Amino acid sequence: MIQSVPVQWPLIQLFRRGVKVQPKSTHQLESNRTDRRRALSTIGLTALSALAGFGVQSDPAWAQDAARNFPVKPVRVIVPFPPGGGADTLIRQLAPILTEIWAQPLIIENKPGAAGQIGGDLVIKSPPDGYTLMMGSTAVLNERNLAQFTPIALVSASPYVVTVHPSIPARTIAELLTYARSHPGDLRFGSSGAGSASHLSGELFKALSHLDLQHIPYKGTGQALTDLLAGHINLMFAPAQTVMPNVQGSKLRALAVTSARRSVALPELPTVAESGLAGYESIGWFGVLGPARMPPALAQQINAAFNKALQHPKVRKDMLDRGSDPAPAGSEEDFARFLQSDLAKWEKLIREKGINVSG
What we know:
This protein is α/β, with parallel strands linked by helices. The chain has helices at 10-17, 26-54, 60-69, 86-102, 117-124, 173-182, 197-209, 221-230, 240-248, 296-310, 313-321, 332-353; strands at 75-79, 106-110, 132-137, 149-164, 188-191, 214-217, 235-239, 253-257, 283-291. α3 (60-69) packs parallel to α10 and α4 crosses α10 (296-310). The chain is globular.
């Protein structure tokens, strides 16, 4: 968990306490006034320096009040991808329940672009008061910017689904490998953007199978899905909640899930590893983050609300029906540890294979 740093407010405290001056002469009065101006100037500079360094007042009493009263106005959740993708679908499933829990509207704003970085930067620059959150995924985070966010709650850590257009004559991973090897460089896989989980899942598939696949990045999963349905790309490593409705409608074909074990939501699909590519494992996560330096008590309160929403029968049914495994209840610290482990895995792959994640 990213901890907030206490910032003292000597200038405010000075005014609260008052400064009583009882001069014995005009000269002493002027001397006291000069000393007082110097003291206030020094204290003011100290306070401004603290503000510049930490950006927010995190007095323990203030933090407790903020958490206790949260929320007193609508909460904005930034989705750094276009509508129709995994992050967008999940937060819209959770929104009605969170609105009930908080008795305040949940406003969802899609801010796509730069593989999630545009929306991520907006959240980073927001006040850490809990009223601007983000439904994020692998694409938005890396080892360099993780400290600019406060991990709050893991929503889903589900396998992706290896999904192909019906024009590809493969019904299993083994058949896909055979077809791809006989058509080197012809197959195109789409992703929600460079550095996203859907991109890195495909890169891991390429690395272990030694296939020549073309990566086509999009601004979000929804846009990639549109091109997959049209046959402009051949396959995707995609969130289940995005592709399974089209699989069930026979518009796409699901071959396998990317996890080490079969998915609770999609038990009929084998894993990639058991289907012909030993050692393959990839998980696509979605979670809630806020700006850095959120007071721990506030992050804990928001975490509890999301955990409660994820246990709601309707939310669980909706997620499972669309092939997404709800995350088990966990703390903000649990989510932070999960992120560090997940990022380390992908950063290693990126370095070793020289993968371009800049878009």
